[in-house]
């Protein structure tokens, strides 16, 4: 009788282990799929926000004006006004010089987090009357 | 007594197994999260194309601004060579940037078809440039090709000068025409009439009231600053 009970207990234990592994495995799979999809949606959302922000500033002429005047404070304020309050940003500015991009400003804005999802968008300015060298602005966004 | 001991062993083992499985699952989930921190978001090729097109048109405007300024300063120059320098710098910059970002890009123009003309008579200032540019950009999925007929014109003229008593009312028209988009842009221009900032009244028209203090001929001198910083001027006498 004792031997029979012992065998039963062993079967229950194996059943329990296998069931636990299957359930948790399925949960991990579902979670990971959902998480990847969520992260991708967030990245696309942030990317679109960054593109729209730079586009609006470029079309109004403000992007060129602030970048070529090196008025980083005004540019930061304008970007801040264009983005939703829960989205943080940092940016770098480069100058086209002798066939290469040379960094002239940055990082400006918020301190970039060391982990988490950060999305980068870029805009290239064609020049200004006082300085015909193209400029590049790299805008980093995160939530 | 033995049964109780076995039960205790069973529960201990079950708890240990649950703990191990939970820890393993957490490690897997954290691993997944860390591994997808740098998600590659494929860039919108239409957005990229629009940016390139807009900024290329701005580049042509910048060329016109520089040619106009040099002409005004009576500097002798070869407008095709200057245009080529500006366009080649721009094309190299775009190629370097977008090829690094996974796009194939091709911009070209025909140097012999570039035309720059000016018309400066007594009361009108007009300069114009025409450049045909071909822009082609593609990624793995989409290829966009467009030929731009970039015809930019800056035109400034004095449309009305009226003397009433000791004052002159001067009306000036300033337009920036972008031929490719068939668009007339008048934004951001700052117009000065004999050093007095003129008021914008709409439709490219600016006006100012000048006080007439002397006798004889009055010269009216107008300057305008376009977004790219171009300096155009018109002159008339009354």
What does this structure look like?
The complex is a heterodimer of chains A (143) and B (238). Chain A is of the alpha+beta class and 143 residues long. Helices cover 54% and strands 24% of the residues of chain A. Chain A has one domain (2-142). Chain A has helices at 2-60, 62-68, 72-82, and strands at residues 88-97, 100-109, 119-125, 135-142. In chain A, a hairpin with a 2-residue loop joins strand 1 and strand 2. Chain A is rod-shaped. The model of chain A has no long low-confidence stretch (mean pLDDT 85). Chain B has 2 domains: 1-39; 45-237, no CATH class. Chain B is 35% helix and 40% strand. Chain B has 3 helices and 12 strands. The longest helix of chain B is centred in the first third of the chain and has 34 residues, at 2-35. The mean pLDDT of chain B is 80.
Strands, helices and their partners?
The complex is a heterodimer of chains A (143) and B (238).
Chain A (H helix, E strand, L loop, with lengths): L1 H59 L1 H7 L3 H11 L5 E10 L2 E10 L9 E7 L9 E8 L1
Antiparallel strand pairs in A: 1-2, 1-4, 3-4
Helix pairs in contact in A: 2-3
Chain B lengths: L1 H34 L9 H28 L6 H22 L3 E6 L5 E6 L3 E15 L4 E22 L2 E12 L4 E3 L4 E4 L2 E2 L1 E4 L2 E7 L7 E7 L5 E7 L1
Antiparallel strand pairs in B: 1-3, 2-3, 3-4, 4-5, 5-6, 5-10, 7-8, 7-11, 9-10, 11-12
